[in-house]
Amino acid sequence: MINRMVPVIQLKDVDLAYVTDHAATLALQDMNLSVEDGELISLVGPSGCGKTTLLSLMAGLISPSRGLVLLHGKPVTGPTPEVGYMLQQDYLFPWRSIVDNVLLGLELTNRLTKQSAELAEELLEGMGLSGTAQLYPHQLSGGMRQRVALARTLATNPDLLLLDEPFSALDYQTKLQLEDLVVDTLKQRRKTGILVTHDLSEAIAVSDRVIVLGSKPGRIRSVFEVPKNIREALPFYAREEPGFNALFHEIWGELEASERRE
Ligand SMILES: Nc1ncnc2c1ncn2[C@@H]1O[C@H](COP(=O)(O)OP(=O)(O)OP(=O)(O)O)[C@@H](O)[C@H]1O
């Protein structure tokens, strides 16, 4: 049973150093972050500031060198079905049908049941992909494949979705459509999401909060709350809301300052 009062994910005084035989890189220093149930936040910042490293910590793929990463108040000890990961590339298996790709996570965690195929059909329908279950990835467009990847991520019913630039390989129109779909789906299912993006307008349009990271070592520089009117609009319309441009320029200034100080 999820306690909705406890943050979904929390980082407390986290450092992360990558150590090899020849060198050590302090990728993150003194990270403190708390993300509440149902929140969608974006991480933005210069290349190398540790965005992907942060997601890897939350996914349990790496462990902090110092500090704690807590999922629902408990230390993350490794990958768990409670956390879903969606990447820039869809990584669909070309030899598996669309429905079998959607069911992959359930299969790998031994959770396939008689109802799973029905669940996959429902998810595909929700993604506007009715009738594609028996097709193969090469028969779908890039945007459709990314929707399948989202359905696959949701099939295991994670509480937290880590979204590492999932829209960046798409053409502009498809990207806007998919942003709307992802935000709508996450809000309706009351999922918590963390988006890494290089597109500041996307970050503002999609999120409740935008976290600006600085680099060398990676750390939080500032946190911007997105005003209610922008938050409540779907991303496509959020960009036309009053206050959007002013917030864009404010965060842009912060990003430029962060890059100048490198
Ligand atoms: N496996 C690794 N071994 C050693 N150093 C690493 C490793 N992965 C990342 N780093 C270093 O850690 C720092 C943070 O990298 P990370 O990929 O998390 O940044 P990022 O903000 O996601 O970058 P980008 O926006 O370019 O994707 C960088 O200095 C990078 O070179």
From TrEMBL:
Residue ranges of domain ABC transporter in the record: 11-240
One term of GO molecular function: ATP binding
Coiled-coil intervals: none
Keywords, sorted A to Z: ATP-binding, Nucleotide-binding, Transport
SUPFAM superfamilies found in the cross-reference section: P-loop containing nucleoside triphosphate hydrolases
Gene3D superfamilies named in the record: P-loop containing nucleotide triphosphate hydrolases
Record protein name field: ABC transporter ATP-binding protein
Annotated source species: Paenibacillus woosongensis
Taxonomic classification: Bacteria, Bacillati, Bacillota, Bacilli, Bacillales
